[in-house]
Amino acid sequence: MTGFLDRAKEQARQGLEAGKQKVDEVQQQRAGNDLLKKLGAAYFAERRGSGSPEATQDALNVLEAHVNAHGDAFLHG
Q1: Cα(36)–Cα(68) distance, rounded to whole angstroms?
Q2: Which pLDDT band, with edges at 50, 70 and 90, does 77 fall under?
Q3: 3-class SS at 4?
Q4: CB neighbours (10 Å) of residue 72?
Q5: For residue 49, is it left (φ>0), alpha (ψ between -120 and 50) or beta?
Q6: For residue 77, what are the CA distances in angstroms to 11, 28, 38, 42, 58?
Q7: How far apart, in whole angstroms, are the C-alpha atoms of residue 48 and residue 30?
Q8: Nearest alpha carbon to residue 28 among 61, 74, 77, 75
Q9: Do residues 52 and 31 touch, judged by C-beta distance below 8 A?
Q10: Per residue in 40-56, is it b (16+ CB within 10 Å) or e — as a string?
Q11: Of 64, 77, 1, 6, which Cα lies nearest the Cα of 38?
Q12: DSSP 19-74
């Protein structure tokens, strides 16, 4: 019986770990999407004359830092 409980605990731990990892991935994708949206808004504002190249570059830098830290999976999904 002890072996069964140990296996059940291990499976539960693995399931919890996998769930946490998936939540982290979803949060990073949402953050990436938000940064991409901000870049688009900065570029649009710049093109319309109400933004600046600096604001666009700042948004791009933040997005690139996110990609470097978390990957670019949000761009493909």
Answers
A1: 14
A2: low
A3: helix
A4: 13
A5: left
A6: 29, 12, 18, 22, 24
A7: 27
A8: 74
A9: no
A10: eebbeebeeeebeeebb
A11: 64
A12: HHHHHHHHHHHHHHHHHHHHHHHHHHHHHHTSS-HHHHHHHHHHHHHHHHHH-SGG
Q: Does position 5 have pLDDT exceeding 70, yes or no?
A: yes
Question: What mean pLDDT comes out for the span 43-70?
Answer: 97
Classify burial at 59, counting beta carbons within 10 Å of its beta carbon; exposed 0-12, middle 13-18, buried 19 or more: buried
Using one digit for the tens of pLDDT, what is the confidence trace for 15-52? 999 999 999 999 999 999 999 999 999 999 999 999 99
